[in-house]
Specification:
By secondary structure, the chain is of the alpha+beta class. The chain contains 16 helices and 15 strands. One of its GO terms (molecular function) is DNA-binding transcription factor activity.
Length: 410
């Protein structure tokens, strides 16, 4: 039977792709019906019988017998004389079922059938991959480095699925070699054309949250809740944790003896500095904890503007701001409040940002980096220390000092 070779080739796809019998039959029927529509204009009067296990396929065309010369639609009607060549006892008005051989469709159609089948099976396969990974969004996933490009690392999982780790989704200190196993979260899955694009991220805060779930049993069991995670990938992170059981110290449980529990997470994130703090609904206390390791003297909160004015001793200011302003920025993200830091006794001081008309913003930022954000804090700082601790020229620093002095001389 000439159908056999074609069906055998279909079975190859079934074995390769592990498609279940029902799905394979549905795909086969769809492919053949498309071919019949192209050749005959309609497939409504065709029966397709497929048995993939036996490698058997039958196509039957059903037509009504009409008088000679009255055939209007050759696909749906057959003349009495043509019908009696199939069976001599047919009468007008009866149904005739005639088998259509694949060879009747033509060699081109058979080649097109195969290509169409390949396309349909790939489409089915890609849809399943898309659905599978869509369900894994936000979950930790591990894959192996297959290829390293300038803007992304291409990973393959155990099933050969391609996963992309873009440069901007990596931790700055990440360094990979071919064959390395890489962990991250499935951040997004999209269908581009018929192909799923799977994006992995190691920079997303959810990755850190999921690492807590994976590495700390109390978080996994639900005894400790991770309320919020904010991070500057590879630099610093703050994690607010809470427990509904008063007997459990959530911070202690997450950090472990001498940092034993959190050490593996820190190492995974390229030695990212992780502050774990106790969550509380007491806003003043929450902001105080968020600014750790700085010790806060007092806080004034404006809930309407979502701003908090924090008073600290001069020696605590640089701790509150942190290197590169990381600590205060993450504290603001964690609490949802814009935090303004003031020194004790500096009520009459002026924020450096107020001088933006006279001093360029990048210069102000240089002072912010070393914890100086007000006019008096700069004026009280040793000039030589300002030169050594900032990337500013002596002339630039002197010019800033002159501008600030004028403010208070007035």
């Amino acid at each position: 039977m000439e159908n056999l070779a074609l069906i055998d080739s279909f079975s190859e796809f079934k074995d390769d792709k592990l498609i279940d019998r029902v799905t394979l039959m549905a795909i086969l029927e769809d492919v053949f019906r498309n071919a019949l529509k192209k050749k005959y204009g309609s497939d409504d009067n065709f029966d397709i019988i497929i048995n993939p296990d036996k490698g058997d396929l039958e196509i039957w065309r059903n037509r009504i017998v009409v008088a000679d010369g009255e055939v209007e639609d050759p696909n749906e009607e057959i003349s009495i004389s043509a019908a009696r060549k199939i069976e001599p006892d047919f009468e007008i008005g009866e149904d005739v079922s005639e088998e259509v051989k694949l060879i009747d469709l033509g060699r081109r159609s058979i080649l097109a059938l195969r290509q169409n089948l390949i396309s349909k099976i790939h489409e089915h396969d890609n849809t399943n991959i898309y659905k599978h990974f869509k369900e894994l969004e936000g979950e930790i996933y591990t894959a192996e480095v297959h290829h390293i490009r300038h803007r992304a690392v291409i990973l393959l999982d155990d099933d050969g699925n391609e996963i992309i780790l873009p440069k901007e989704k990596q931790i700055p200190s990440d360094f990979f070699r071919k064959g390395d196993n890489v962990r991250g979260i499935i951040e997004s899955v999209e269908l581009k054309g018929n192909k799923p694009t799977i994006i992995l991220s190691r920079a997303n805060p959810v990755f850190l949250e999921k690492l807590f779930e994976q590495e700390i049993p109390e978080v996994f069991d639900g005894l400790i809740t991770v309320k919020k995670v904010v991070r500057i990938p590879g630099e610093k992170a703050k994690v607010a944790v809470d427990s509904y059981d008063d007997r459990i110290d959530p911070v202690g449980a997450c950090v472990g003896m001498k940092g034993s529990r959190i050490h593996g997470i820190v190492r995974e994130l390229g030695n990212e500095n992780i502050d774990v703090i106790n969550y509380t609904t007491n806003l003043q206390l929450y902001i105080t904890r968020a600014l750790s390791p700085a010790k806060v003297t007092s806080i004034k909160i404006n809930e309407e503007t979502k701003r908090a004015e924090v008073i600290l001793r001069p020696e605590e200011v640089s701790k509150a701001i942190g290197r590169g302003g990381h600590n205060i920025r993450l504290a603001g993200q964690l609490t949802g409040y814009e935090i303004d830091v003031l020194r004790e006794g500096a009520e009459e001081d002026v924020e450096l940002s107020e001088f933006s008309d006279e001093i360029e913003s990048w210069i102000i930022q240089e002072f912010h980096k070393i914890g100086l954000d007000t006019a008096k804090s700069v004026l009280e700082y040793d000039f030589k220390d300002l030169v050594s601790r900032t990337d500013l020229e002596e002339e630039t620093i002197q010019e800033v000092i002159n501008i600030l002095k004028e403010e208070f001389e007035e």
